[in-house]
Here is the input.
Amino acid sequence: MDLPQLFLVGLVLLLGVLGVLVPGVPGTWLVWAGVLWWALHERSALAWSLLVSATALLLVVQVIEWQLPPRRLRGVGVSRRMAVYAGAGALLGFVVVPVLGAAAGFVGGIYLCERLRLGTHGEAWASVRAVMRAVGTSVLVELLACLMVVGAWVGAVLVG
Here is the structure.
């Protein structure tokens, strides 16, 4: 696969990860489609193994999400700005401490957004707890799965 096409696959994967944070955008399926695109062009054992593993992981995550409580976004004050902060924090955390750092970065992004909006530590932390109860679990599960797939894809590209 040539470099421009590899860049486009990476862009689709990035849009998928960001799409996880936006309600109504099929972020998980964009990540899967990016891996499928890469595997169809790469045609190696590593590519097919990654596609099968990503498919299994993302399907399991979909089943897990159906078992979690429904999202109540507006009821706890979740805004687009908060989603951007949470997503940026998760991506930064993922880069600093691969996979596990995404969770801390996600929560840190929400805290930073609320601290800037509300002003005090106590109010911001109370808001973070409310948001995490309402939406954090399902988004975090899906985000971590997508970041794991993207991380595996980056590793496969670097190795292959």
The mean pLDDT is 88. The radius of gyration is 17 Å. Residues 16 and 27 are 4 Å apart (CA to CA).
